[in-house]
Design goal:
- The complex is a heterotetramer of chains A (602), B (194), C (333) and D (110).
- Chain B is mainly alpha-helical.
- Chain B has six helices and no strands.
- Chain B has one domain: Four Helix Bundle (Hemerythrin (Met), subunit A).
- Chain C has 333 residues and is of the alpha+beta class.
- Helices cover 37% and strands 19% of the residues of chain C.
- The longest helix of chain C has 34 residues.
- Chain D is mainly α and 110 residues long.
- Chain D has two domains: 60 residues; 30 residues.
- Chain D is built from three helices and no strands.
- In chain D, helix 1 runs antiparallel to helix 2.
- The termini of chain D are far apart.
- The chains are: A mainly alpha (602), B mainly alpha (194), C alpha+beta (333), D mainly alpha (110).
- Chains A and C meet through helix 3, helix 8, helix 9, helix 10 and helix 11 of A and helix 1, helix 2, helix 3, strand 8 and strand 9 of C.
Chain lengths: 602, 194, 333, 110
């Protein structure tokens, strides 16, 4: 057993709540980094023929912005809630595999640091510049990523970093599937699971099926770049389109990996603050499952401009449009949840309603490029940049902020300031519309994406300036949020067990919960255990102190040790030192070996 | 869900480790699915030889296939022995499984080196790329399996592999059999259907 | 009390106002100038209006709900409604029906725009390079770069491929983009319907100077097109003996230029764009700069500083030699 | 006791019988490969034989036949997904609705 304080206790922790906080702070730091990259991008584009950064740096900025936001900010911010909230919502004492959970976190952290080390690793590779960050786009289309066209270490950092992060996501995926299916409190049937937990489950199934595909695509690229294979080399008879298919086979489910958790959060926040059960719970859950499932059948809609032929285009267009149906159903159910309620306008609710409002816009622009002929004009322009930001910023990030304001008191025991929260919301809301709405027009007026400069006679200079001002506003809003977080550490009002009157189990226990979560594992009799419904009285909260001592598993050093092996292994490939490869494998095997034979009782 | 768990209460009455492992195997289906898809997509696309029919050695690989099938049999026999608490036979069958695995790997090393000698490398053509990466990934899985089995065998030698550890053996068996079924697919799609 | 009024957000009118002041938007997708672009535009417009209807209805419902049902003191606790089957069916069917109205014209347009041009069409091959465009007219035996000349009113069959990485050929006024993938030839067909100069550029990220891979399409009256064809088919202009241009040709012929550029009768390089008739083009460096002496001088002296990553090296040509080379290139109409 | 008592697993006799069938099927596979008469139906025959082998190992050696049906779902779901993806990719690369005019200009008129 390790103590509960000090650096050591955080390094070795296996407590899902602490790991959740680690995920949050790490991912939020990467979110700030990604945001800074976005601001530099917008600064460069504020005026035509911009000179803030050069072409090479710009290409690194947009590549790292995309990669960071997807893999280092949004996914792990969702993971912060998977970790902290899901076990509480299902009435569990921890996740199914606490050490595997710690391993996931450490791999994520090390993978993120590895990727970002590329900003300062230039001298190591005698590159002549400081920054050798990835510069081939977050989608890394072959054959631009081949050694012939990207000779530097930039793309190596990208593909190795993504491989490392994939390990983290996969490990977390298995862990949460088992946790949700197997660690539910007595009486918590599947159709009594809170919606957020349900969406987490769907997300994890997408993770464990989609990530192997990108792993394979990246392995091919690794073999091409390091060992002279020809998986994406046209001269050898290969086709770079293989990369596109494999990447989007992963990439489209990835979109749902990013949005489904946010949808789950919104489905929790709306009922709490309108004092009404979620309208059509069953339909919302099934449509989430359906979205996840259908997400596998649409990947080629990212490739309409490739020229796949009219039949393939029609098929993928039809499947893509079909996804609008379950998505629309969700939106209608959310509105129906608000309908007839008594809506308390907390910051969390602001963000949840903002999510719906913005996601509708993103969804509608999505329908316009589900139509291949229309997409031929839109794809690879700022119109698509507008679309993804309405979906991922207006959608996912709004959903995540709703979750932060909703669950922060549970996670830290203090309530965030509502006044600062409202300010944060409105600045973000106005900023994001100012930043991203003009992009629809910029795109329709013919500005492609991923260009570091544009001519004044394109006629989009003023629109770009507006967009940049909006981005700055988002930056200011984020500062307000940081101030709110900081201030709450000491000045936030102490949170009671249940500051909002929530229906789900996490509100039955103290804020923050004790290490063992539930003094007595509750028995669940309804979908809304803490609310009075027609058939059920509210569940009594567990007693303040456990009737008998609760065993809590101790910490372990071996997950971080095993995790350390991966970046060492990646470094071996990056620097072509064989001994590093042996070292990395040795560290990993040693960590796993000690881990396997360590006495560790759950 | 008729046979309930005993050690821990779980909502589904299924062991968590076994459930996680089945999810892992599901995930592996997509991994090998992507590799096999690529092999098939690039089939016949090589612009220079050697081509599959020039180089694949069916009799030799048939023996390897037989070897791996037999190792699967050894594995289930090992599991049965562990379950009935028969440590002596557990040791024998576990070692036999690992040994057949090593034999398979030896065969693969021989196959790879002879291909390289005949002019097929990773750099030669698309057949080389897809063949080596697909079968190499499978070989890496076999290697991990052999290491795992040898660890269990050492535990058995130490007398620490009783019926209480049957589940551990069963899970390693799941892995081993999965690697075997992947080979069944590879043997057909890569070697026999040229 | 919170109020959500996204429809009041001044963004849309503001953005439209900004657009209204600007112009003339040479690369706009909203001003189709070919049958292909016209079909796409028509489809987009119909989808756009469907989207607007859905937007108004759904956002309206959302805003109404949030305002109408906001918490007020003394309001009774809400009824715990769990769902409503008829409503669920209704709002499953509603989007499905709207999607049919979008999907049917979509499919029709996919097949209408996928067709091949008639055999009489002008055939053009587009080849993407890092970072410029090569155009070949196989039937006319013309090779040129970056500026594509087409006759108005005649169908064009474009075959697109790439010499290195993936690019995407895009001239919005004439139709949607189509990727230039190495090892593959894809095709689009369209019929330009108005005379004019339309700009476009590479739409698929293709490396350092992706932003600088622009193009221009000149849609010409038939007579003007025929004149252009005759100029292109003629051998490269031979400068009179002793002239400045002749000195320029000699400098060119002895320089590293010939390793990459073709000028009929002078050099045979194929890495860079052909220069046989470069003087007839209005722009240089893939549409980046006007084709005038100062820009040519800067370009020849130090291309990579103007176009990051450009393969064209700094040319040690200066002073009178440079003036002569520029004069020579400009004479190659 | 570990979960899943003895009754849940097949007997050694079953294991041996399955092994015998697997060996016979493998011999058949290789045999089919070498007999010229079979070449017309080689691919379907081989696919069918290997599918049977696959099923035998999964059902008996991996106990899916008698184990929880949920495990069958955890394995079968992704397995089917992988098969569907494989078939879809093969259609996209080789089907009639593939890239028109692939390298070499094969497909004028699609």
């Amino acid at each position: 057993m390790t103590g509960s304080r000090g650096l050591r206790s955080w390094l070795t922790t296996t407590d899902h709540k602490r790991i959740g906080l680690l995920y949050f702070y790490t991912a939020f730091a990467f979110f700030l980094v990604g945001g800074l990259e976005a601001l530099l991008i917008r600064a460069q584009l504020a005026r035509p023929n911009g000179t803030v950064v050069g072409a090479e740096t710009y290409n690194q900025l947009f590549t790292m912005h995309g990669t960071t936001m997807v893999f280092l900010a949004l996914m792990p911010l969702s993971a912060a809630f998977f970790n902290y909230i899901v076990p509480l919502q299902i009435g569990a004492r921890d996740v199914a595999f606490p050490r595997l959970n710690a391993f996931s976190y450490w791999v994520f952290l090390l993978g993120g640091l590895f990727l970002n080390a590329s900003w300062i690793a230039g001298p190591v590779f005698r590159a002549g510049v400081l920054n050798v960050a990835p510069d081939a786009g977050w989608f890394g289309y072959a054959n631009l990523t081949e050694r012939q066209y990207s000779p530097g270490p930039n793309v190596d950092f990208w593909m190795l970093g993504l491989q490392i992060l994939g390990v983290s996501s996969l490990a977390a995926g298995f862990n949460f599937i088992v946790t949700i299916l197997n660690l539910r409190a007595p009486g918590m049937k599947m159709m009594r699971l809170p919606t957020f937990t349900w969406m987490t489950l769907v997300t994890q199934f997408l993770v464990i099926t989609a990530f192997p595909v990108i792993t394979v695509a990246l392995v091919f690229l690794m073999f091409d770049r390091f060992f002279g294979a020809h998986f994406y080399v046209p001269q050898a008879g290969a086709t770079p389109l293989l990369w596109q298919h494999l990447f989007w086979l992963f990439g489209h489910p990835e979109v749902y990996i990013l949005i489904l958790p946010a949808m789950g959060i919104v489905s929790e926040v709306l009922p709490t603050f309108s004092r009404k059960p979620l309208f059509g719970y069953t339909v919302v859950v099934y449509s989430g499952v359906l979205i996840g499932f259908m997400g596998w059948g649409v990947w080629s809609h990212h490739m309409f401009s490739v020229g796949l032929g009219p039949i393939a285009d029609s098929v993928f267009s039809a499947t893509t449009m079909l996804i609008a149906v379950p998505t629309g159903v969700k939106i209608f159910n959310w509105i129906a949840t608000l309908w007839g309620g008594t809506i308390r306008g907390t910051t969390a609710l602001h963000f949840a309603v903002g999510f719906i409002a913005m996601f509708i816009i993103g969804g509608l622009s999505g329908v316009t490029h589900a139509s291949p002929p229309a997409d031929l004009q839109q794809t690879d322009t700022y119109y698509v940049v507008a679309h993804i930001h309405y979906v991922l910023f207006g959608g996912t990030i709004f959903g995540l902020f709703a979750g932060i304001y909703y669950w922060w008191p549970k996670m830290t025991g203090r309530l965030l300031s509502e006044a600062l929260g409202k300010l944060h919301f409105w600045l973000t809301f106005i900023g994001m519309n100012l930043a991203f709405f003009p992009m629809h027009l910029i795109g329709l007026l013919g500005m492609p994406r991923r260009i570091y400069t544009y001519a004044p006679d394109l006629g989009v200079s003023s629109l770009n300036l507006v967009s940049t001002i909006g981005a700055l506003l988002i930056g200011v809003a984020t500062l307000v949020f940081v101030v709110n977080l900081w201030r709450t550490r000491s000045h936030g009002a102490p949170a009671p067990n249940d500051p909002w009157g929530g229906a789900t189990l996490e509100w039955a226990i103290p804020s923050p919960p004790p290490p063992y979560n539930f003094s007595v594992i509750p028995t669940v009799a309804s979908r809304l255990p803490r609310w009075k419904t027609e058939h059920h009285d509210p569940m009594p909260d567990p007693p303040a102190a456990p009737p008998a001592p609760v065993h809590v598993p101790g910490g372990s050093w071996w997950p971080p040790v095993a995790a350390l092996g991966l970046p060492v292994l990646a470094l071996a490939l990056l620097t072509h030192h064989l001994w590093l490869a042996f070292l990395g494998v040795a560290i990993m095997l040693y960590g796993i070996y000690r881990w396997a034979f360590e006495p560790f009782e759950i | 869900m008729t046979h309930a768990a005993a050690a821990h209460h779980t909502s589904m009455g299924l062991d968590s480790r076994k459930m996680a492992f089945w999810a892992f195997i599901g995930s592996e289906c997509l991994l090998f699915g992507s590799l096999i898809s690529t092999y098939l997509i690039y089939k016949g696309k090589s612009v220079v030889g050697p081509y599959p029919h020039d180089i694949l050695n069916i009799p030799f690989t048939s023996v390897s296939t037989f070897d791996l099938l037999m190792s699967s049999l050894m594995m289930v026999l090992a599991l049965a022995a562990v379950q009935r608490g028969d440590l002596k036979w557990a040791k024998i069958w576990l070692f036999a499984t690992a040994f057949l695995g090593i034999l398979f790997l030896g065969g693969q090393v021989y196959e790879f080196t002879s291909f390289v000698r005949e002019g097929l490398t990773l750099q030669t053509n698309l057949f080389g790329c897809t063949f080596f990466v697909l079968t190499g990934t499978h070989g890496a899985h076999v290697t991990v399996g052999v290491l795992w089995l040898l660890t269990l065998w050492v535990r058995a030698l130490q007398g620490k592999l009783g019926p209480a550890q049957a589940l551990t053996v069963e899970i390693s068996g799941l892995y081993w059999h999965f690697v075997d079924v992947v080979w069944i697919v590879i043997f057909t799609l890569v070697y026999l259907i040229q | 009390m919170p109020r959500f009024r996204p429809w009041l957000s001044p963004l849309l009118p503001l953005a439209l106002a900004v657009v209204a002041c600007g112009g003339p938007f040479p690369q706009s997708t909203l001003r189709p100038r070919s049958d292909f672009a016209g079909a796409v535009d028509q489809l987009f417009t119909s989808i756009f209006w469907w989207a607007i209807i859905v937007f108004v209805v759904v956002e309206g419902l959302l805003c109404y709900a949030v305002i109408r049902y906001r918490h007020r003191e003394g309001r009774p606790a809400p009824r715990p409604v769990h769902g409503h089957t008829a409503l669920e069916i209704a709002w499953t069917l509603a989007p499905a029906v709207i999607l049919v109205f979008i999907a049917v014209p979509t499919m029709r347009t996919i097949f209408a725009t996928a067709g091949e041009a008639p055999p009489t069409a002008l055939k053009v091959e587009v080849i993407g390079h890092q970072w410029w465009w090569e155009y070949r007219y196989p039937d006319l035996r013309i090779v040129t770069a970056n500026e594509l000349s087409l006759p108005v009113g005649r169908p064009v069959q474009v075959s697109i491929t790439s010499a290195d990485v993936i690019h995407s050929f895009w001239a919005p006024a004439l139709g949607g983009k189509r990727d230039a993938t190495p090892g593959y030839v894809t095709r689009i067909a369209f019929r330009p319907d108005s005379v004019g100069v339309y700009s476009g550029q590479c739409a698929e990220f293709c490396g350092a100077s992706h932003a600088n891979m622009r193009l221009r399409v000149l849609v010409l009256r038939d007579s003007a097109f025929q004149a252009w064809v005759r100029r292109q088919q003629a051998p490269a202009a031979a400068p009179p003996r002793g002239s400045l241009e002749a000195r320029g040709r000699d400098v060119f012929a002895k320089s590293a230029c010939i390793g990459c550029h073709t000028i009929d009768g002078v050099s045979k390089g194929i890495i860079g764009p052909t220069l046989s008739h470069v003087g007839g083009r209005a722009t240089i460096a893939a549409g980046l700069f006007p084709n005038d002496s100062p820009h040519l001088a800067r370009w020849i002296a130090n291309a990579p500083s103007l176009k990051p990553g450009a393969l064209m090296m700094q040319m040690p040509v200066a002073g009178a030699d440079l003036t002569a080379v520029i004069a020579y290139l400009q004479s190659l109409k | 006791m570990p979960e899943a008592g003895e009754h849940a697993h097949p007997t050694v006799g079953t294991y041996l019988r399955v092994a015998a069938i697997l060996v016979i099927l493998t011999v058949l596979e290789v045999g089919v490969f070498y007999v010229p008469a079979f070449h017309v139906v080689l691919v379907p025959t081989l696919l069918a034989l290997s599918a049977v082998k696959f099923a035998l190992v999964v059902l008996f050696y991996m106990h899916l036949r008698m184990d929880s049906r949920f495990f069958s779902f955890l394995f079968g779901g992704p397995f089917l997904l992988a098969v569907v993806v494989l078939v879809a990719l093969l259609f996209l690369f080789f089907g009639h609705f593939t890239l028109r005019g692939a390298a070499g200009g094969g497909g004028a008129g699609g």
